[in-house]
């Protein structure tokens, strides 16, 4: 079971990696090559410098050898390496970051599309804060796959290879093999060990962080309730507790990290000491010269360095895997939602014997519901919360599909209960409904929604930037802007979900009057529980427990009675 | 350098800082984080240990140079054994000292983070809900979680760098100049150029990256913003258009980020270039000196191979602290931003009435009389007072409606009665005892609050009713669930609700608020803030009925604009909207 789980995790990581390489293969490869070049030139710089100093020291012993010594080539190579190292490092950083950012941009778009599918969207909207927060931190956590794992692996392998090659050629193949094995063993072994012992801790950290956030949100949003219950102190200590949990995880993390660092330092000292002894024996046996011995020692000294880049990536691997396992499913999801077909003739909406609900396991909200609305009818849908109003609207707009029966509806637009405006200009907010709309068309829509005058007064008019959730407009203005946006879609069937909820009475009346003038030739379905909204309708449908319990047109004697039983505001 | 001044301050300043902790509780503090961050001796100890560990390299380098020198002067294998083993022993020693140092630094820094979080939670708990400057819950969460977290690497990495920056280069210069003044001069020449170039580039980078920080933040915000409005996007058939726009925004962000990164990388490339050049120049100089091509720079003598190698081995280490500084620079920036965010959060002057010293004896035992005498209250940043010389008496057990349009101050009056904000002048007394910091907690324990949008805590429905009040028995809770007609909700929501769980409908949430009040038998005063707003007729009627049931043998004050609800009370006070 556990094995299966971990296999699945690697698969998720693979999906993410494939995404990385699918579009930016070249850049990612160049980035890795440059990282290798950086490591190699660093290694060579120190090694050749050591060789140069030893060689010159020996040549300098007699005047004859000093004069014949070609110092030009090595000294130029040393200077060249200094420049190559710097340039390669700069290039590596630019390419790797560019490639990562491009991939993350792709990923964000893909995620948005994944979440915009009907089923996914509903889950997201049910528990927005946590999921949305996860989404952003998870995306950010993924950059370490390439930057902190793949790139250092490339650089470390190149450095080990060069070091082994040089030592094998000039010193001793046996020493080269031993050093290469040692570097690979420690360089990959220690981070792997660190990553496996930190993986649970990484998950704990992420959960601890979420608990800390949730408890803080509870403290701030539930402050009044907590104050009255005299539990502010308790909530503060809950936050302290969440932090203590995090601190324990942080501590374990730090212990693993410092231990890995220590292992690297000690491993380097062992390699250094062993190389020193080996070359000493070889020099003693006159198998190699002193400059070559120096070269070997100095290369050994810095060959482990590129591996240390792996340390952080390895520690974060648990977190990265968690992010991958949460994000990957969204990238390959394919929820099937049946399209809602258009009915024939004068019918605007036709439900026949529909059974529908949310989760497969749960009891369906409707069983065998039928309903017909004709073109041009204006219908108020009333019923207390939980009666099935929202489910009905979700069915009509195609957010959910019926498990049996048929739903047919003409082209329609729904105005959600909440005013949903976006952090963007007024123009872009409007053009969401019709990307090709000209400014004239936008102004027409604003005029019709009774908002043009207000917008003209703004210094930047259509280019005015709105804040998050449409911040910067009053409740009434926001509602009107949303209605103007609906106008631009201009479908024959409008669906309203409590359109004046949370507006004060005067503004609500203005907005409703505006709607009234706009819907003269449209079919209208309005979910409501107040009189001022129901006043738009000439037919009232009452729902209870997923059934239509009465269906009254204006000429019915009970229509007035039903109407006046609604709340005034 | 700023970091140094933030922590290493004169005793006088430290005193001032500890005074300001006290004043946090009262009102404005000059620096909220300072008392916690100014006195962290562990950082110093750890940093000194880490610097010592780095100094051990000087010994190792000397031993390696000596060993090779011996080999070159016809030495034998035996002579290398001791230096080689010493290199190993010193390496092990160095690893351990470094480890101990970094553990001490981590523990000190992490402890400071915990203290900061605890203090921040206190601040959030006691800033009045009526404070319009108070950050919304999401922002508060990110301050306490991520922004505070960013202070950890700042403390952890920046403080050892400060010590190393002073200790290591000077020790190395001393060793190098002992053998060759010219090699030392090369290092000195390369080192100061680095900060100059970095400052020049960094100056440009700072502005660019500040703009960038805002952009990166807004990219996530962009995604969140659109996902929140998915309903509209889907109903307008705009998924594709939004995805494309999102893509364009992401591309623009990428380009802007790359501009900043290019500058940032250029500044570290400068650093690397000079340190690589420094090493190369030292190597070339030492080589030519050994060859005899250059005869000066070594106190009139020719360098030996051992001396030359020693100098070469020390050269990269000379630049290492500078490289560490450059790497820690980013941590410093985000750490400082985190500290600033905490300080800003603590700057407020609107708090709820509370005190740690509570006189338990003024807990109520019967429906109280509430007396409001000549109160004056004004919201922040407005010049129109909500209440001016306002008085009101509520008799014990009375059911009173405060009726008025939004903006008339009815909810504010409830908040004043609950001690959630203090009045500018005048007084509020309950059963003859004045509402104050000392008495507020005890009073509140006898109060119940039914708000229009009750907050759902993350947890089960039952834990949401209990709200941590241990004195409430399970039987009380079951009874309250039944009385508030919540049984079917409990049946439907077995699991978690609130943040990270399922939501409740408006009617269900209000029933929950009523159940919270009903579960506590010690309640004698019920404050209800627009309990029927946004509810349909049937639910509103039911809530009204339950509210009246709750108010039996209790004093009830309800703020509302629902005439039907108001008509069921003993008395109605009309409040006018303020212009």
Describe the structure in your own words.
Chain A has 569 residues and is of the alpha/beta class. Chain A is 65% helix and 10% strand. Chain A has a six-stranded mixed β-sheet with strand order 5-6-7-3-8-9, sandwiched between helices. A three-stranded antiparallel β-sheet of chain A has the order 2-1-4, covered by helices on one side. Chain A is elongated. The two termini of chain A are 57 Å apart. Chain B is of the alpha/beta class and 579 residues long. Chain B contains 19 helices and nine strands. In chain B, strands 6-7-8-3-9 form a five-stranded parallel β-sheet. A four-stranded antiparallel β-sheet of chain B has the order 2-1-4-5, with no helix packed on it. At the A-B interface, helix 1, helix 3, helix 4, helix 5 and helix 7 of A face helix 4, helix 5, helix 6, helix 8 and helix 9 of B. Chain B: This is Thiol reductant ABC exporter subunit CydD. Chain B: The chain crosses the membrane at residues 48-68, 80-97, 185-203, 263-288. Chain B: It is a multi-pass membrane protein.
